[in-house]
Amino acid sequence: MPKDTFNHLSEEKKEKIMRASIHEFNEHGFEKGNVGEIARQAGIAKGSMYQYFENKSELFLDTVKWAMGFLEMNFSKFITIQDKTMDIFDYLYQNAKAATFQMREERGLAVFIQNVFLGKFRELSDETMDYMLKMSDEYILNMIRVGKENGSVRKDIDDNILSLFVIGVSYKIKEYLMKKARNNGQDIIDEDYEVYENEIKAMIELLKHGMGGK
Amino acid sequence: MPKDTFNHLSEEKKEKIMRASIHEFNEHGFEKGNVGEIARQAGIAKGSMYQYFENKSELFLDTVKWAMGFLEMNFSKFITIQDKTMDIFDYLYQNAKAATFQMREERGLAVFIQNVFLGKFRELSDETMDYMLKMSDEYILNMIRVGKENGSVRKDIDDNILSLFVIGVSYKIKEYLMKKARNNGQDIIDEDYEVYENEIKAMIELLKHGMGGK
Amino acid sequence: MPKDTFNHLSEEKKEKIMRASIHEFNEHGFEKGNVGEIARQAGIAKGSMYQYFENKSELFLDTVKWAMGFLEMNFSKFITIQDKTMDIFDYLYQNAKAATFQMREERGLAVFIQNVFLGKFRELSDETMDYMLKMSDEYILNMIRVGKENGSVRKDIDDNILSLFVIGVSYKIKEYLMKKARNNGQDIIDEDYEVYENEIKAMIELLKHGMGGK
Amino acid sequence: MPKDTFNHLSEEKKEKIMRASIHEFNEHGFEKGNVGEIARQAGIAKGSMYQYFENKSELFLDTVKWAMGFLEMNFSKFITIQDKTMDIFDYLYQNAKAATFQMREERGLAVFIQNVFLGKFRELSDETMDYMLKMSDEYILNMIRVGKENGSVRKDIDDNILSLFVIGVSYKIKEYLMKKARNNGQDIIDEDYEVYENEIKAMIELLKHGMGGK
DNA sequence: GATGAATGAGGCTTCATTCAT
DNA sequence: GATGAATGAAGCCTCATTCAT
Predict the structure, then answer these.
(1) N or C: which end of chain D has fewer CB atoms below 10 A?
(2) Is D35's CB less than 7 Å from nucleic acid strand E?
(3) Residue A186 is part of which domain span?
(4) What is the mean pLDDT of chain C?
(5) Which of the pair, C55 or B131, is modelled with greater confidence?
(6) Rounded to whole angstroms, what are the CA distances from B201 to A210, B102, B204, B208, D110?
(7) Is residue C39 part of a domain?
(8) Nucleotides of strand E under 7 angstroms from a protein beta carbon
């Protein structure tokens, strides 16, 4: 958690600092990421960083949390979870869709978070992080169980294996979206979205019915 | 590529250095990985490292290549590719199986390589690396094309999407095997293999027929 | 000298700040002593410290002065100087006795002052400090002169040498008392005092008659 | 203890570094003493300091040890301890005399060591240091016991008190010599020594027979 | 070629002091 | 006057790389 001093800052200032942090860590990773540079990008004194955050590690973790909160707050509308018994395929579709939007509107942020989830930053072993990851796993697992009950998911395979399967595909498609976003440089226009959508749908289809020929 | 001086070393010495390097990078990542410590572990002088390798980055890349070569040489027997038209599901099965063996016999090495492929080391961009990664993609793609021809793979979905699908699942199961290997500490006994095998088969089944119910 | 703002504070607040300062400097020395921490311990704002004191050095000096004044005010009763011609041995006895009481009642304060006089804080060079130290030397010197006149002190040795002799022994016994106080932890009970008293008397006896055998 | 690398240096280089260290710590104390500056004064790279010493604290401790060893090697000739039963007054005389010579020939070094013994550097709590200090205490105590046996020291006073007495005076005279040396600036000429000698003798006389009149 | 000491840039962090409210 | 956030200089230490033997 950031120190109180950080929380007392104006929303804009907080955001500026967090975005500078995200940018720097995205660009150089944790080890090479430079606290002084973050401060410079945020237009504050280097020393101030240490008034806001305990140290570089905490800064990183706090940045992750802020980014997740930010995305959740601004893009949750794309995931309209009606109830706990939501269909897992619908969920995955909406989730990937949300990620696509994030990638367009908030590329840096989304890339940062995806990389965190993809485990690209080896320097995190925080119980909060673990908790978040576990949460998302639990979420998937729950939908799998529900799916088994209502017949939308096959019953002959272990929950954990199914979960791995779903998450593996799910991450890969996000990674793919990320890469595409990176390559596209600055601008993603609306036509692109149809392509994305089709690709996402194809992935879901594969999850559902497999890739085996007739 | 290592300098000539490295290639002139005895096979044992080369292996000792490479294993020390793998160990260090596995333990601390690239940035925190310490060249001097690798030398110490390998029982050579720090300065010698710079007679063998251009610099730390090259050392890393060379280590990756060595590790891949080593695994290929020692575990390729587990992948009996009869011909270019091999069935992709068979291939994936054998590939996962091989990974399982690697994990047992050469945990450090296997973990290292998996992490490289999983993109955990962000600081690598070498044309040779890219080539290898692309190769493995091409390999998959080719099997997909063949599969489409002989009817074992559905034709209504784009090759690249199918490839993502396969790779996503494939990586995930390897990641899972890795984690399990890590948790199991030192000893993986034969009984474990049956469990692993069943899990791998379940994953292949899912790739083939999907997770949809009924 | 503290700024006026400090003098306008209530006696309790002043004392709280001074005690916090003494505690911090005792614990960490001058360089490592932390102004912010003193403020925190005193329950005031860090910025306020700079409204009360010019800077850290002044704060230290002011703390010394306050502590000396405090001890003088509260423990001078133990030194009943009847007249200027007081016997030096009586004086030393009473002085050591007073120090013993201080050590019991006001350990932190007494330790602080003793350390100042023992020169443990090398970073002080204030004319007021010098003056005080010189004062106490002058005091001793004067008693030595009086003693020579009335025959209680031998005349064949230089005043300054005698003064060194007295002060050396005097400091050492105080240092010894301090160490004992520190080791005794929280509680010094009355029985201890008899021991202390005997030790003090033995030191005076040595000053008077030397340690030579019969 | 310094690292091996330091011990492998030439004697001159070692001495240059140690003298630079002594100078810096004498001038600014431990906390304010600057490792980089020491390196600069010694004509070596800052990083090299860390190849020779674990860290600043170790450097300080190692410097103390070196200085003590140096003085012992170069000035022990002034203390001709014939046997364990040496007379304590003779010992103290020779000891003070040796200190005087040290102060002339090796002012910086001597001042440094005296300050260490006087406890001016609060930042040392090394078992080796403690050991050295205790050694010198034990030394004194032993001579006191011997003195009591052969009648040169009075028997009616506790050993520890006598030891305090001796050490207190002894330190004070050294402190006095130090101050004098400092004030004298660069040059101490031979005439001064007679004065010093007389003062030392006077102190010993006081230790022996006390300052009482008649 | 092998060695291991030497180098120095670079980065994190502390904290006395100032400043704006 | 009080507050506590903002500042930035300063210093310890690491370690990749070079160099001399």
Answers:
(1) C
(2) no
(3) 75-209
(4) 85
(5) C55
(6) 14, 18, 5, 10, 80
(7) yes
(8) 1-20
